[in-house]
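Reopening this one. Same input as before:
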Amino acid sequence: MAENRGVGPFTEAELRARCMAILEKVGMPREAAEHVAACLVLAELRGVRSHGVTRMPVYVERIRRGSMDPKATPVVLRETAAVAVMDARNGHGIPVGAQAMDLAIAKARAAGVGVVTVRNSNHFGMAWYFVKRAVEQDMIGVAMSNADSFVAPWGAGKRYLGTNPMAVGIPAGEEVPIGLDMATSVVAHGKIKLAYDSGQPIPLGWALDASGAPTTDPAKALEGALLPFGEAKGSAISLIIDMLCGPLAGALTGPFIAPLFTAVDRPQGLGHFFMAVNVAAFADLATYKREVDEAIRRIHALPPAAGFDRVLVPGELELEREREARKTGIFLAEPAARDLEALEKSLNIA
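Same output, byte for byte:
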Protein backbone atom coordinates (compact mmCIF):
# COMPACT_ATOMS: atom_id res chain seq x y z
CA MET A 1 0.00 0.00 0.00
CA ALA A 2 1.29 3.46 -0.85
CA GLU A 3 0.66 6.27 1.61
CA ASN A 4 -2.33 8.44 0.67
CA ARG A 5 -2.71 6.64 -2.67
CA GLY A 6 -4.82 3.63 -1.75
CA VAL A 7 -4.38 -0.09 -2.27
CA GLY A 8 -2.03 -1.29 -4.98
CA PRO A 9 -0.42 -0.95 -7.37
CA PHE A 10 -2.42 -3.09 -9.79
CA THR A 11 -1.84 -3.39 -13.51
CA GLU A 12 -4.53 -2.40 -15.95
CA ALA A 13 -4.71 -5.98 -17.26
CA GLU A 14 -5.06 -7.41 -13.75
CA LEU A 15 -7.97 -5.16 -12.78
CA ARG A 16 -9.75 -5.72 -16.08
CA ALA A 17 -9.41 -9.48 -15.69
CA ARG A 18 -10.75 -9.38 -12.12
CA CYS A 19 -13.78 -7.27 -13.10
CA MET A 20 -14.47 -9.47 -16.12
CA ALA A 21 -14.31 -12.65 -14.03
CA ILE A 22 -16.91 -11.26 -11.62
CA LEU A 23 -19.24 -10.06 -14.38
CA GLU A 24 -19.01 -13.31 -16.32
CA LYS A 25 -19.69 -15.27 -13.13
CA VAL A 26 -23.02 -13.43 -12.70
CA GLY A 27 -24.03 -14.11 -16.30
CA MET A 28 -22.65 -11.33 -18.47
CA PRO A 29 -21.30 -12.50 -21.86
CA ARG A 30 -17.57 -11.98 -22.39
CA GLU A 31 -17.82 -9.15 -24.97
CA ALA A 32 -20.15 -7.12 -22.75
CA ALA A 33 -18.00 -7.83 -19.68
CA GLU A 34 -14.93 -6.63 -21.58
CA HIS A 35 -16.59 -3.28 -22.25
CA VAL A 36 -17.72 -2.80 -18.65
CA ALA A 37 -14.31 -3.76 -17.25
CA ALA A 38 -12.46 -1.58 -19.77
CA CYS A 39 -14.63 1.45 -18.95
CA LEU A 40 -14.25 1.07 -15.17
CA VAL A 41 -10.49 0.55 -15.35
CA LEU A 42 -10.04 3.47 -17.77
CA ALA A 43 -11.79 5.65 -15.18
CA GLU A 44 -9.31 4.44 -12.55
CA LEU A 45 -6.38 5.14 -14.88
CA ARG A 46 -7.63 8.69 -15.48
CA GLY A 47 -8.15 9.36 -11.77
CA VAL A 48 -11.96 9.33 -12.01
CA ARG A 49 -12.47 6.96 -9.08
CA SER A 50 -16.16 7.86 -8.76
CA HIS A 51 -16.79 5.96 -12.02
CA GLY A 52 -14.26 3.18 -11.51
CA VAL A 53 -14.20 -0.16 -9.73
CA THR A 54 -16.33 1.30 -6.94
CA ARG A 55 -19.36 0.69 -9.23
CA MET A 56 -18.88 -3.08 -9.36
CA PRO A 57 -20.98 -3.97 -6.27
CA VAL A 58 -24.11 -2.14 -7.44
CA TYR A 59 -23.80 -3.63 -10.95
CA VAL A 60 -23.59 -7.13 -9.49
CA GLU A 61 -26.44 -6.50 -7.07
CA ARG A 62 -28.71 -5.26 -9.86
CA ILE A 63 -27.90 -8.33 -11.95
CA ARG A 64 -28.56 -10.65 -8.99
CA ARG A 65 -31.89 -8.96 -8.23
CA GLY A 66 -33.00 -9.11 -11.84
CA SER A 67 -33.28 -5.35 -12.34
CA MET A 68 -30.55 -5.40 -15.02
CA ASP A 69 -30.30 -8.10 -17.69
CA PRO A 70 -26.64 -9.05 -18.22
CA LYS A 71 -27.48 -10.96 -21.40
CA ALA A 72 -29.67 -8.31 -23.04
CA THR A 73 -29.24 -7.89 -26.80
CA PRO A 74 -29.98 -4.29 -27.89
CA VAL A 75 -32.14 -3.76 -30.97
CA VAL A 76 -32.52 -0.89 -33.44
CA LEU A 77 -36.12 0.37 -33.47
CA ARG A 78 -35.84 3.20 -36.02
CA GLU A 79 -33.18 4.07 -38.52
CA THR A 80 -32.34 6.53 -41.29
CA ALA A 81 -29.05 7.32 -43.03
CA ALA A 82 -27.86 9.52 -40.15
CA VAL A 83 -30.07 8.54 -37.21
CA ALA A 84 -30.95 5.46 -35.17
CA VAL A 85 -33.00 4.73 -32.07
CA MET A 86 -31.89 1.74 -30.00
CA ASP A 87 -33.61 -0.20 -27.25
CA ALA A 88 -31.11 -1.50 -24.67
CA ARG A 89 -33.76 -3.95 -23.42
CA ASN A 90 -32.67 -3.32 -19.85
CA GLY A 91 -29.05 -4.22 -20.50
CA HIS A 92 -25.99 -2.59 -19.00
CA GLY A 93 -25.41 0.93 -20.31
CA ILE A 94 -21.71 0.52 -21.08
CA PRO A 95 -21.89 -2.26 -23.72
CA VAL A 96 -24.93 -0.74 -25.42
CA GLY A 97 -23.27 2.68 -25.29
CA ALA A 98 -20.22 1.35 -27.13
CA GLN A 99 -22.47 -0.28 -29.72
CA ALA A 100 -24.50 2.92 -30.15
CA MET A 101 -21.41 5.11 -30.56
CA ASP A 102 -19.94 2.67 -33.10
CA LEU A 103 -23.20 2.88 -35.05
CA ALA A 104 -23.08 6.70 -34.89
CA ILE A 105 -19.49 6.58 -36.21
CA ALA A 106 -20.50 4.31 -39.09
CA LYS A 107 -23.35 6.66 -40.01
CA ALA A 108 -21.07 9.70 -39.77
CA ARG A 109 -18.59 8.04 -42.12
CA ALA A 110 -21.36 7.71 -44.72
CA ALA A 111 -23.56 10.74 -44.00
CA GLY A 112 -21.19 13.21 -42.30
CA VAL A 113 -23.04 13.06 -38.99
CA GLY A 114 -24.47 10.17 -37.01
CA VAL A 115 -26.83 10.44 -34.04
CA VAL A 116 -28.01 7.44 -32.03
CA THR A 117 -30.31 7.52 -29.01
CA VAL A 118 -30.81 4.67 -26.53
CA ARG A 119 -33.79 3.88 -24.31
CA ASN A 120 -34.48 1.30 -21.56
CA SER A 121 -30.86 1.39 -20.42
CA ASN A 122 -28.88 1.46 -17.19
CA HIS A 123 -25.85 3.33 -15.83
CA PHE A 124 -23.31 3.89 -18.62
CA GLY A 125 -20.17 4.61 -16.61
CA MET A 126 -17.65 7.23 -17.69
CA ALA A 127 -18.86 9.13 -20.76
CA TRP A 128 -15.33 9.61 -22.14
CA TYR A 129 -15.18 5.87 -22.86
CA PHE A 130 -17.62 6.36 -25.74
CA VAL A 131 -16.34 9.71 -27.01
CA LYS A 132 -12.81 8.30 -27.17
CA ARG A 133 -14.03 5.81 -29.78
CA ALA A 134 -15.05 8.65 -32.10
CA VAL A 135 -11.89 10.70 -31.51
CA GLU A 136 -9.76 7.68 -32.44
CA GLN A 137 -11.58 7.65 -35.80
CA ASP A 138 -10.78 11.35 -36.42
CA MET A 139 -14.31 12.36 -35.52
CA ILE A 140 -15.83 14.71 -32.98
CA GLY A 141 -17.73 12.67 -30.43
CA VAL A 142 -20.55 13.58 -28.07
CA ALA A 143 -22.06 11.36 -25.37
CA MET A 144 -24.78 12.27 -22.89
CA SER A 145 -26.97 10.41 -20.42
CA ASN A 146 -29.71 11.37 -18.05
CA ALA A 147 -29.69 9.94 -14.53
CA ASP A 148 -31.92 9.42 -11.53
CA SER A 149 -33.13 12.50 -9.68
CA PHE A 150 -30.39 13.73 -7.37
CA VAL A 151 -29.79 17.39 -8.27
CA ALA A 152 -31.83 20.39 -7.17
CA PRO A 153 -32.57 22.73 -10.09
CA TRP A 154 -31.14 26.19 -9.44
CA GLY A 155 -33.32 27.92 -6.85
CA ALA A 156 -35.01 24.71 -5.67
CA GLY A 157 -34.45 23.03 -2.33
CA LYS A 158 -35.36 19.54 -3.50
CA ARG A 159 -33.87 17.12 -6.02
CA TYR A 160 -35.44 16.77 -9.48
CA LEU A 161 -32.72 16.53 -12.16
CA GLY A 162 -30.06 13.85 -12.54
CA THR A 163 -26.33 14.49 -12.53
CA ASN A 164 -26.78 14.15 -16.32
CA PRO A 165 -23.21 13.77 -17.59
CA MET A 166 -21.92 14.86 -20.97
CA ALA A 167 -18.64 14.36 -22.80
CA VAL A 168 -17.28 15.97 -25.97
CA GLY A 169 -14.07 14.94 -27.71
CA ILE A 170 -12.21 16.99 -30.34
CA PRO A 171 -9.44 15.21 -32.31
CA ALA A 172 -6.09 16.96 -32.67
CA GLY A 173 -2.92 16.23 -34.62
CA GLU A 174 0.32 16.27 -32.63
CA GLU A 175 -1.32 17.62 -29.47
CA VAL A 176 -3.63 15.73 -27.11
CA PRO A 177 -7.31 15.63 -28.07
CA ILE A 178 -9.56 18.12 -26.31
CA GLY A 179 -11.73 16.07 -23.97
CA LEU A 180 -14.57 17.44 -21.87
CA ASP A 181 -16.19 14.89 -19.52
CA MET A 182 -18.34 16.26 -16.73
CA ALA A 183 -21.42 15.88 -14.63
CA THR A 184 -23.81 18.81 -14.70
CA SER A 185 -23.85 18.80 -10.90
CA VAL A 186 -20.98 20.49 -9.05
CA VAL A 187 -19.56 16.99 -8.58
CA ALA A 188 -20.62 13.50 -9.61
CA HIS A 189 -22.84 11.53 -7.22
CA GLY A 190 -20.01 8.99 -6.99
CA LYS A 191 -17.76 11.55 -5.27
CA ILE A 192 -20.34 12.02 -2.51
CA LYS A 193 -20.54 8.24 -2.16
CA LEU A 194 -16.73 7.96 -1.98
CA ALA A 195 -16.62 10.64 0.73
CA TYR A 196 -19.34 8.82 2.67
CA ASP A 197 -17.55 5.47 2.36
CA SER A 198 -14.26 6.96 3.56
CA GLY A 199 -15.79 9.04 6.37
CA GLN A 200 -14.64 12.37 4.90
CA PRO A 201 -16.62 15.65 4.81
CA ILE A 202 -17.50 17.29 1.51
CA PRO A 203 -16.84 20.95 0.64
CA LEU A 204 -19.56 23.49 1.23
CA GLY A 205 -21.36 24.25 -2.04
CA TRP A 206 -21.57 20.67 -3.27
CA ALA A 207 -24.94 19.70 -1.81
CA LEU A 208 -28.01 20.44 0.26
CA ASP A 209 -29.49 18.39 3.10
CA ALA A 210 -33.08 17.10 3.08
CA SER A 211 -34.36 20.46 4.37
CA GLY A 212 -32.69 22.36 1.52
CA ALA A 213 -29.86 23.80 3.62
CA PRO A 214 -26.18 23.62 2.53
CA THR A 215 -24.25 20.74 4.13
CA THR A 216 -20.71 19.32 4.39
CA ASP A 217 -21.95 15.95 5.68
CA PRO A 218 -21.98 13.34 2.85
CA ALA A 219 -24.65 11.30 4.67
CA LYS A 220 -26.97 14.31 4.74
CA ALA A 221 -26.07 15.08 1.12
CA LEU A 222 -27.09 11.57 0.08
CA GLU A 223 -30.46 12.20 1.73
CA GLY A 224 -30.72 15.68 0.22
CA ALA A 225 -29.63 16.97 -3.18
CA LEU A 226 -26.55 17.89 -5.17
CA LEU A 227 -26.24 21.40 -6.58
CA PRO A 228 -25.86 22.17 -10.32
CA PHE A 229 -22.52 23.52 -11.53
CA GLY A 230 -22.55 27.14 -12.64
CA GLU A 231 -25.79 27.84 -10.80
CA ALA A 232 -28.59 28.65 -13.28
CA LYS A 233 -26.44 27.84 -16.34
CA GLY A 234 -25.58 24.33 -15.23
CA SER A 235 -29.17 23.74 -14.22
CA ALA A 236 -30.32 24.71 -17.73
CA ILE A 237 -27.77 22.42 -19.41
CA SER A 238 -28.84 19.54 -17.17
CA LEU A 239 -32.49 20.01 -18.12
CA ILE A 240 -31.60 20.08 -21.83
CA ILE A 241 -29.65 16.81 -21.48
CA ASP A 242 -32.65 15.26 -19.72
CA MET A 243 -34.87 16.27 -22.64
CA LEU A 244 -32.43 14.87 -25.24
CA CYS A 245 -31.95 11.60 -23.38
CA GLY A 246 -35.51 11.28 -22.10
CA PRO A 247 -38.40 12.25 -24.45
CA LEU A 248 -36.26 12.29 -27.62
CA ALA A 249 -34.89 8.82 -26.89
CA GLY A 250 -38.18 7.44 -25.60
CA ALA A 251 -36.71 6.97 -22.13
CA LEU A 252 -37.68 8.13 -18.65
CA THR A 253 -36.68 11.49 -17.16
CA GLY A 254 -34.96 12.25 -13.85
CA PRO A 255 -37.82 11.97 -11.32
CA PHE A 256 -39.02 8.68 -12.81
CA ILE A 257 -35.67 6.92 -13.27
CA ALA A 258 -34.95 4.26 -10.66
CA PRO A 259 -32.11 5.44 -8.39
CA LEU A 260 -28.95 3.45 -9.05
CA PHE A 261 -28.12 2.62 -5.42
CA THR A 262 -31.44 2.73 -3.56
CA ALA A 263 -33.97 1.13 -5.92
CA VAL A 264 -31.93 -1.89 -6.98
CA ASP A 265 -35.06 -4.01 -7.61
CA ARG A 266 -36.26 -1.75 -10.45
CA PRO A 267 -34.77 -1.27 -13.94
CA GLN A 268 -33.44 2.25 -14.24
CA GLY A 269 -35.00 3.14 -17.60
CA LEU A 270 -32.22 5.55 -18.56
CA GLY A 271 -31.75 7.24 -21.93
CA HIS A 272 -28.52 8.11 -23.75
CA PHE A 273 -27.57 10.33 -26.69
CA PHE A 274 -24.51 9.71 -28.89
CA MET A 275 -23.27 11.78 -31.81
CA ALA A 276 -20.30 11.45 -34.15
CA VAL A 277 -19.26 14.25 -36.53
CA ASN A 278 -17.00 13.27 -39.41
CA VAL A 279 -14.51 16.12 -39.62
CA ALA A 280 -13.49 15.15 -43.16
CA ALA A 281 -17.05 15.77 -44.34
CA PHE A 282 -16.78 19.41 -43.28
CA ALA A 283 -13.14 20.35 -43.75
CA ASP A 284 -9.76 19.08 -44.86
CA LEU A 285 -8.77 16.75 -42.00
CA ALA A 286 -5.07 17.65 -41.96
CA THR A 287 -5.86 21.37 -41.95
CA TYR A 288 -8.42 20.94 -39.18
CA LYS A 289 -5.99 18.99 -36.99
CA ARG A 290 -3.28 21.58 -37.56
CA GLU A 291 -5.62 24.39 -36.54
CA VAL A 292 -6.71 22.52 -33.40
CA ASP A 293 -3.03 21.96 -32.54
CA GLU A 294 -2.33 25.67 -33.00
CA ALA A 295 -5.25 26.62 -30.75
CA ILE A 296 -4.04 24.24 -28.03
CA ARG A 297 -0.49 25.62 -28.24
CA ARG A 298 -1.76 29.20 -27.98
CA ILE A 299 -3.67 28.24 -24.83
CA HIS A 300 -0.59 26.51 -23.41
CA ALA A 301 1.43 29.67 -24.06
CA LEU A 302 -0.89 31.92 -22.04
CA PRO A 303 0.53 33.20 -18.72
CA PRO A 304 -0.85 31.17 -15.78
CA ALA A 305 -3.15 32.93 -13.32
CA ALA A 306 -2.20 33.22 -9.66
CA GLY A 307 -2.18 29.77 -8.07
CA PHE A 308 -1.56 27.93 -11.34
CA ASP A 309 1.75 26.75 -12.77
CA ARG A 310 0.49 26.04 -16.30
CA VAL A 311 -2.58 26.32 -18.55
CA LEU A 312 -4.17 23.08 -19.75
CA VAL A 313 -6.95 22.18 -22.17
CA PRO A 314 -9.89 19.97 -21.07
CA GLY A 315 -8.92 16.32 -20.68
CA GLU A 316 -5.19 16.97 -20.62
CA LEU A 317 -4.75 16.36 -16.89
CA GLU A 318 -6.71 13.09 -17.07
CA LEU A 319 -4.60 11.89 -19.99
CA GLU A 320 -1.43 12.68 -18.04
CA ARG A 321 -2.77 10.66 -15.11
CA GLU A 322 -3.65 7.80 -17.45
CA ARG A 323 -0.14 7.68 -18.92
CA GLU A 324 1.47 7.85 -15.50
CA ALA A 325 -0.78 5.12 -14.06
CA ARG A 326 0.15 2.82 -16.93
CA LYS A 327 3.76 3.19 -15.78
CA THR A 328 3.35 3.11 -12.00
CA GLY A 329 0.19 1.00 -11.66
CA ILE A 330 -3.34 1.73 -10.44
CA PHE A 331 -4.08 2.41 -6.77
CA LEU A 332 -7.66 1.69 -5.73
CA ALA A 333 -9.51 3.52 -2.97
CA GLU A 334 -9.56 1.22 0.05
CA PRO A 335 -13.37 0.70 0.06
CA ALA A 336 -13.29 -0.20 -3.66
CA ALA A 337 -10.46 -2.70 -3.12
CA ARG A 338 -12.33 -4.29 -0.21
CA ASP A 339 -15.55 -4.50 -2.21
CA LEU A 340 -13.76 -6.14 -5.14
CA GLU A 341 -12.26 -8.80 -2.86
CA ALA A 342 -15.63 -9.36 -1.18
CA LEU A 343 -17.33 -9.90 -4.55
CA GLU A 344 -14.65 -12.42 -5.56
CA LYS A 345 -15.05 -14.26 -2.26
CA SER A 346 -18.85 -14.36 -2.49
CA LEU A 347 -18.62 -15.76 -6.03
CA ASN A 348 -15.84 -18.25 -5.19
CA ILE A 349 -13.42 -16.63 -7.60
CA ALA A 350 -9.79 -17.42 -6.78
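So the earlier flakiness isn't reproducible anymore. For the record, The mean pLDDT is 96.
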